[in-house]
Every structure is written in structure tokens, then in C-alpha cells.
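Sharing a chain and its predicted structure for anyone who wants a worked example. Both blocks are below, sequence first, C-alpha cells second.
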Amino acid sequence: MSVIVVGLNHRTAPVEMRERVAVPASRQIKAIHDLAMREHLAEVVLLSTCNRIEIYARCTKFHAAVSDILDFLAEQASAQPEDFAEHLYTYYDDGAVAHLFGVTAGLDSMIIGEGEILGQVKDSWQLAEREGAAGQLLSRVFRQALTVGKRARTETAIGRQALSIASAAVALAEQTMFSLRGRSVLVLGAGEVAQGLAKALVSAGVGEVVVANRTYARAVDLAGKVGGRPVTLGDLPEVLASVDVLLTATDSTEVHVERGDIEAVMERRDGTPLLVVDVAVPRDVDPGARQVPGVTLFDMDDLKRFTESSLHERRREISRVQGIIMDELEQFQTDRTAREFAPLVTSLRQRGDTIRTAELERFRNKLDGLDPETRNAVEALTQGIVNKLLHEPTVRLKDSAGTARGELYADALAALFDLPDGLPDDSAAE
């Protein structure tokens, strides 16, 4: 069995495509079980964020597994696989592992080195584990991926001057408005990104933070943390008529603010402009609102262009992070191959002991006359001979783990000693 990943992200697909296949947190458990039931997916982890959706899987057959995942994405998007195939990427075995390592290190993020992705990867893996979809192989891959992410941020400056989607969105708003100091801002949402938005707004010196959320209790909780004012979704028209900025980051599949809503609000603002930064995927604000006079609307693609010019310092660290990824990938390969060799070594030693005990049984009539001390000595002598004969092949096999020579040794041992398998697949190793 092999590890694969199929996905699309901010590099390969526009926000319009990403929002079609995005799986909100409220539907992820159902999606994981859906994927896990597919014939050729033995283990599954689903990673869905505002900038990517990726399905990592331990598969029984490569092409059939890819087809299973494409079918899932097509159903998610209510489309045909060919409608979005050009936006997808697929990586296999070491390529899939290296890709995940790059994701956790922040190299594949819209904002290079951002720290949010590390927690998102961990949460996705742990959810899959709790639901029984991630087994030993994917758990080893994800556990080491988190190590890569932590090393990248402690051993290099890739995450220096912490920058996140939330802080970048506030920075974009601040640049557009020249200053947010004393301004009133409505935050739509109360999840992790919305919390980051609210905290960044306070740091920017805004005059008032208003928080709206579908679940009012969560709006109250977030507003309390930042000294803001909670409102219900029903209060949106009234609040939008007076605030300077709207920042949205819900985990919803629905548009919360239609173009008509914005048009009605703008009629009440007497020409006062409104800035909207929508970092939700799927989007919270109707893209058509961009056409309403007096409205400036930015979405994730606009945020990507904004951040491109502010990451030169982090880009200088990319080569060092890549070195960490290669180091950890080599370690993963070695550990995985050594784990695969374990059944072969066990079979080799079992074969030696089977031959030893068979020979002792053949000479049992002659050995029965020996006193117990002498019999024990014969037992120890034969055991020692087998151990010494097998010691060197075992050591050489383990030392060559992760190399082409190791695979040759494994195949040779299997053939010479008539063992069950050469290099076992992961199902045997598990």
C-alpha cells in the first residue's frame, strides 16, 4: 500500500473553485466517513482550510484511489471531475510525504511561514484518528510532519514577525483606510480566524469592534475577549449602516451578505464608503457587491496579491527549511523501510529456529540419554550457532534500511531462505 495526496490550493485554483470544494468544519466528520468508505482508500485524512483542500490516503491501488478521491471532490462541488481536474495536483509516496512536510513548514501557504497551518494540520489528523479513518501509517506521516513544522519555525526565521491570514487582512484594511485608529469595525464570525481578526484590530487601535455570529453566545464570548459589542445576524443591516469596515471569516457554506443587502445599506450611509475584507472560503459576501458604488471589496485572492510584496525576508529562509524537509524525509524513509524489514527478520529467525528444533527432534533418541545439564548445553549450543549465523545478515539488512541495497538484500534473503515475502507492504508492517 502507498501514501497519496490529491488536492488543490491557492496556487492552483482561484477562490471561486476553492469555495466549491471546501468542506466546512460542521461537515468534516461526515466527509471523512464518506472517504473512508471508498473501496481503495484504507486510511484517510482530510485537510480543508481557506486556502486548500487536500485528501491524504493510504491506498490499495494508486489510480483507483485517485479516482475515488476525484469522485468525492466532484460530489462536493456538484460538478464533473473534468471541470476542476486542471486545478488538481497528485503526489505519491515520498512525493506525498514531502508535500505534507512542506505544508506544515509553511512553504505552501499563501503567507509563507504562517503558523496557523500547523494547528490546522494537527486538528485534521486528530479528527481522522478519533473517527477511525487514520491508521498507523498516516499517523506516523502526520506526526513527523508536525515535527517538521516545529523545526522550521524554531531553527529558521521562516515564521519571524508572525504573520497570519487575520493579521494580513487587518493590515490590508489599514493600508486601504490609511489608519484604523478610532474606526468602527464589524467582524462577522467567531471562529479561529475571526478571533485573530478581532485581536489584530485591537492592536491596530480601532475605536469599536462589533462581533456578529450565527451562534450569538459565541459572538458574546469573542466580544468579551476584546472589549467589543456582540450582535445577532439580524442586526447586520443596522450595524453595516454605521461601521467603517466589515471583516468576514465564518465557516459557512452560505452567503451572508448579498449584493442587494449592500445596496440597501449604502443608501443609508449618505455617501460614506464601506470597506469589506472577506477572508472566508466559501465567501461570506456576494462578489457582486464589488460593483456597488462606494464599496471596496477584497477577498482571499486580493489578500494573496497584497501579501506577495511583504515576504522577502521569509523567502530567504526557504532553502534552510527545504534542508530540514529533506533531512526529515530521509529519516522517515529509513524508519519506514526498517519497519518493513521487521517481518522479514522475524521470518528469517523463525526459519532458523524451525530448522534447529527439527534437527534436535531428529536426534531425540540419542539425546534422550543425556543428563539434563548436558541437554541444556546442547540446546544452548545449537541456539548459539543459529544466532551467530543469522547475526551478520540481520545487521547488514538493518544497516541498509532505506537504500536500494537494502531492498536487494531483502529480496535475496527471501529467495535464498524461501521466506514468505521479500519487502513486505505496509499492511504487513502494520
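Comments welcome. Residues 422-430 have pLDDT under 50 and may be disordered.
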